[in-house]
Write a structure and sequence with these properties.
Layout lengths: L1 E2 L6 E6 L12 E6 L9 E9 L3 H6 L19 E9 L9 E5 L5 E4 L8 E2 L16 H13 L7 E4 L5 H12 L3 E6 L2 H7 L5 E4 L5 H8 L4 E6 L3 H7 L3 E9 L19 H4 L3 E4 L9 H13 L7 E5 L4 H9 L6 E5 L3 E2 L2
Parallel strand pairs: 9-10, 9-12, 10-11, 12-13, 13-14, 15-16
Antiparallel strand pairs: 1-17, 2-3, 4-5, 4-7, 4-16, 5-6, 6-8
Helix pairs in contact: 2-3, 2-8
The chain binds NADP nicotinamide-adenine-dinucleotide phosphate.
């Protein structure tokens, strides 16, 4: 195994100020420091890949989300990543192991392998280790537990997915196909509709079409599962087309994250007359079953049934613009940053 040369110092992206609207360059500060020492009981990690997720803007805003401590101005931004063990003074890890966990936006981390860091080894499956931030990591697990355990798909079900070209969405539409469902993907723009068309029976371009009108055309018998990544008026439109026993899965509400007040869906009583359910889920509540999900998702990936769609920001410098791309609708698939690559022989 050969690796790219290591950086000579640690770089960290820190919170410079609270974001207003989408994140901009002035919200971030890049700091340089010495590579940390590896003390007894610790491992020294060198970052290979860093995740980019909508929740990171919440971290920068000082909110406590996903069990992470609220960030103060000047703190290193929270973020999951994939890293290689450079030095090990911990009995469970060897130099060269590749792990994933809470690394923060930095090049090096001396980790004490605490529960909160959720550090775990990644098996070499012959696919990019970056997939551990996408189809084989939290993004894939969100799609898996949300769609399979909350959506309860059956062959022949009609499934509607919003942000269908995003990280979670691009996996959900493929899981729906694997389960023999009819799939309608909602996303913004012709390019994104084209990108997901191979897994969707129909697409709705919400930027250029009326979602309400298209749903009325496409759903004469209603929908069986709505997998909601966006909330707001798209959720409201889908609640007008529930089939008997429909399942609405609340994964995210990105259309509301920049609003001062939540949208406030008013037609939720539509659930009642069709015995429908609306369930939220939080991926970390399923931590006990991550290994099962990873095994199943990896089987689908290696069999070619699940094709990870990735949107890669190149280099650590690209982290701030990579995060901004999520809120400016630019990413197709799971967004992450390639900081340093391992080349396998
Ligand atoms: N419940 C959980 O445990 C859990 C876990 C992970 C993620 N999530 C949530 O799941 C959702 C998807 O997460 P992800 O990581 O896969 O991100 P993602 O879908 O890749 O997020 C970015 C996409 O969201 C869409 N978007 C952005 N602003 C929007 C707006 N104002 N209105 C409508 N769509 C907008 C854009 O796609 P278009 O171009 O199609 O608009 C954009 O490309 C997010 O809401 C996230 O917070 C929840």
């Amino acid at each position: 195994m050969t690796v790219e040369p290591l950086p000579e110092s640690n770089l960290q992206w820190c919170v410079a100020r609270r974001p207003k609207g989408n994140v901009v360059a002035q919200d971030f500060r890049l700091t340089e420091s010495q590579i940390p020492d590896c003390k007894d009981g610790q491992i020294l990690l060198s970052t290979l890949y860093l995740n980019l997720a909508p929740v990171m803007r919440d971290y920068m805003s000082g909110k406590s989300v996903a069990g992470e401590a609220p960030l103060n101005i000047g703190d290193v931004i929270h973020g999951r990543g994939v890293a290689q063990v450079l030095v090990s003074k911990h009995p469970d890890f060897e130099v060269g192991d590749v792990v994933q966990g809470q690394l923060g936006w930095q090049l090096f981390k001396a980790s004490s392998v605490t529960d909160g860091e959720r550090i775990s080894k990644i098996p070499n499956r012959g696919v990019s280790y970056g997939y551990s931030l996408g189809a084989l990591g939290m993004t894939g697990f969100s799609a898996y537990f949300g769609f399979i355990e909350r959506g309860l798909p059956k062959a022949g079900d009609t499934v509607v997915v919003s942000a269908a070209a995003g990280g979670v969405g691009s996996i959900v539409i493929q899981l729906a196909k694997i389960h023999g469902c009819r799939v309608i993907g909602i996303t913004g723009g012709a390019e994104k509709c084209q990108a997901i068309s191979q897994w969707c029976d129909d697409t709705i371009d919400y930027k250029n079409e009326s979602v309400a009108e298209r749903l009325a055309q496409l759903l004469p018998n209603g929908l069986d599962i709505y997998f909601d990544n966006v909330g707001g008026d798209t959720l409201s439109a889908c609640l007008n087309h529930l089939a008997m026993g429909a399942r609405v899965v609340l994964c995210g509400s990105i259309s509301e994250y920049l609003l001062d007040q939540p949208y406030g869906v008013k037609n939720y009583t539509n659930l009642r007359r069709v015995n429908a359910s609306m369930n939220g889920f939080f991926v970390y509540n399923h931590a006990a079953d991550f290994a099962t999900a990873e095994e199943q998702l990896a089987q689908w990936v290696t069999a070619g049934e699940l094709q990870p769609v990735v949107d890669i920001a190149e280099g650590f410098d690209a982290m701030p613009t990579g995060l901004a791309r999520l809120y400016s609708h630019k990413n197709i698939g799971t967004a992450y940053c390639r900081v340093r690559e391992i080349q396998t022989a």
